[in-house]
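Hey, resending since the last one bounced:
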Amino acid sequence: MTQHDRLLIIDFGSQVTQLIARRLRELNVYCEIHPYNRVDDAFLTAFAPKAVILSGGPDSVTREGSPRAPEALWTFGVPVLGICYGQQTMMQQLGGLVEHGHGTAEFGRAFVTPTEARLPLLDGWFEAENGQAENGQAENGQGGREQVWMSHGDHVSRIAPGFQVYGTSPNAPFAITADPARRFYAVQFHPEVHHTPKGAKLYENFIRAAGFRGDWTMGAYRAEAIAKIRAQVGDAKVICGLSGGVDSSVAAVLIHEAIGDQLTCVFVDHGLLRLGEAEQVVTMFRDHYNMPLIHADESALFLGALEGVSDPEVKRKTIGRLFIDVFQKHANEVGGAKFLAQGTLYPDVIESVSFSGGPSVTIKSHHNVGGLPEKMGLKLVEPLRELFKDEVRALGRELGLPASFIGRHPFPGPGLAIRCPGEITTEKLDILRQADAVYIDQIRKHGLYDEIWQAFAAILPMRTVGVMGDGRTYDYALALRAVTSVDGMTADYYPFTHDFLGETATRIINEVKGINRVFYDCTSKPPGTIELE
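The structure tokens again:
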């Protein structure tokens, strides 16, 4: 993507660094996240960013050997925005001072008040919706305080030479600082999270000051991706792992537009799909899109390998390994395909491998991330690897996929295996399919499907005593999960009414044999993940 204006995000390990990228992508700015320990002077020159953002992080700049930005950054001549830890390392490296503790830690909501100095980065920041100050008009005309989200134990005790203070909070006297001459800006809070309501405005002002054209669109990406696919593949054959989810489906349609019948889709039925899903996928792609499609029923292979397995990481790795084996077999059947296409997304890469060994903590592995075994002999085509989920949906609309299909909730590659905590059995999968279908039917009947990012049922590794009629039951318990999100990196549970939950639980227990108790999961992400495993 070198033809776009590019912004570099140097990652110091914050779990919300990805949200910075999302805010920028929403403003049509192409950006990439790279860990601090892989960004040196040579990298800066090669990447040639138009601006740089320094993320937050869990470390302390007061610790000897703690992460730093490359020294070349300070003379590179582009705008730099430091956030939380990014602010602190900026101050420390440029001659300021950061200290630990002393009662100035802040975690959670705080309010920043402007100083008398004016800064273009803050245009519209402290103004209320009607243009007036929220707490009375301030002398500098910028308005009153603004809510932000703080998460810091250390604090800047002395700003670096050349910097001024533009905003303060009760425990952060240097909440907003800047050196306008060098276009260095620093904030102690996190503008990327939704708890900072006007965070997007700050990013908008920053990229305007940096001179970005806003040239990152899905229309442009479509044309570039098609050209890139053709250049990579040439006249070789490609097989695409088609799951029926939005990601793999958009990837398949995009690649088919690029190379036509050089593409063969392989739909692997691993026995872990939702009710009726195999038939829906085969009908859509074989009949509607007229793509070469192999329907590989490998349920016996997968379920046999998963028998007795309860560890979630072992499940994911087993499924990933078997997917590779199945693709290899069918690659040979289509006359020696040389490429395997996957619907890998940017969050998959970040979450699975802490973005190329960066400082973030690895949360979980993804079955489609991490490359291919050398023995496979196939090279990867991953046209969505730089995109977030909502960008994939926008690309799907650009490609003409039906709105009803683009709006489908995400479904994980490992399928129902990770919605069946503990050991997987055919009985549990059958019960889960039926219960999940009732749950989704309820959501659709109440007109809630499009309000929810993802909803599903999970069968729990426990049986509970119940009473139905005059008889005792000893059946499985079911957990219902529904979340709202923008990109899947963070999520809030959906606030169903008690009436809805009661009605849904009644339907499931009455209609699905083997369930006698239903729970609703009201955990957000973080601290939980969206899927149970």
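The first strand starts at residue 6 and ends at 11.

Sorry for the duplicate.
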